[in-house]
Write a structure and sequence with these properties.
homodimer, about 140 residues, mainly alpha, Phenylalanyl-tRNA Synthetase, Chain B, domain 1, 2 domains, 6 helices, 3 strands, about 10% strand, DNA-binding
DNA sequence: ATAATAAAGGTCAATAATGGTCAAAGGAGC
DNA sequence: GCTCCTTTGACCATTATTGACCTTTATTAT
């Protein structure tokens, strides 16, 4: 669906990162630009718009001979979510770490949910949490398409 | 007289959506306008009058090169509830205007709610909506301090 | 060691390619 | 004529692409 060169570079890099062991890759800017037949500065553009801290990525680089750009996806190992209803705050923090949620969203939900749950019994809370996980997964899929 | 251009655009888009796997399509505004020999803003008009949240549709877009408009049809169950849902959408819109809420938060909630309501009966939905509205009001107050 | 040179990556502003907004004009059915 | 929906267009906002010029680092020549 997403067809611009920037989109394709983004996709390409994210696949590489996901396949990597440490959620980290190193690339050559000029080489990548060559691969996608674009100017090197477009790679910089993609990095700054799609791999910034807000999106859960850290980029470092070195100029000159043997230069490189390193991209790291900061995330912790996914955890078992079977007991979500027991510790809501922890769950949200966890999702935030895993970048299944953005900073601003997390902050919002963090505030919203306790207020929501005030009026709900445990069963209802569990229902809401389960649905929410599903929704977030779907949302995430849409975002990363 | 024959149906209006807006009607025909609506029909066209709905057929495309129904035929799609994920009840979701992406179009180019200018291209669609060209197809129907109208100005691009008429497409925007159709989207806002026939594909808004009230009708069970979510639209997202991106400007600039290789921009697009994405239309998603959300399930009927999710929107067949009380006026509270509409009220909430309106609140979100207002908060966006007043910058008491971020785009990403609003987008997130728009996705979250239908999925959340999928598994809930009307009574539960009402409870959630009421609590959410209360919570948002409080959140709003905190933000504006 | 130092100076020159080559080999990276970075910045920034101009331009192009989209979609959005809003208010005014048009038109069909009372 | 009045009202509501539609149609239009001028102007706006956002995102992508490109290229000239700059900075940093490694390598080579003296």
């Amino acid at each position: 669906m997403r067809r611009s060169i920037s989109d394709r570079i983004e996709q390409y890099l994210k696949v590489l990162i996901n396949r990597s062991d440490a959620q980290q890759i190193e690339i050559q800017r000029a080489e990548l630009a060559e691969t996608f037949s674009c100017v090197p500065s477009q790679v910089t553009y993609v990095l700054s718009t799609r791999f910034n801290g807000k999106d859960g990525y850290i980029t470092e680089s070195r100029r000159g001979g043997k230069g490189f750009v390193r991209i790291t996806h900061v995330s912790t190992k996914a955890r078992d979510c079977s007991h979500l209803h027991e510790d809501l705050q922890e769950m949200i923090a966890h999702m935030l770490e895993d970048r299944h949620m953005q900073e601003s969203e997390a902050r919002f939900i963090k505030y919203l949910l306790p207020a929501l749950f005030e009026d709900m019994d445990e069963e209802q809370q569990q229902l809401v949490l389960t649905s929410m996980i599903k929704a977030i997964v779907r949302y995430n899929r849409l975002q990363s398409e």
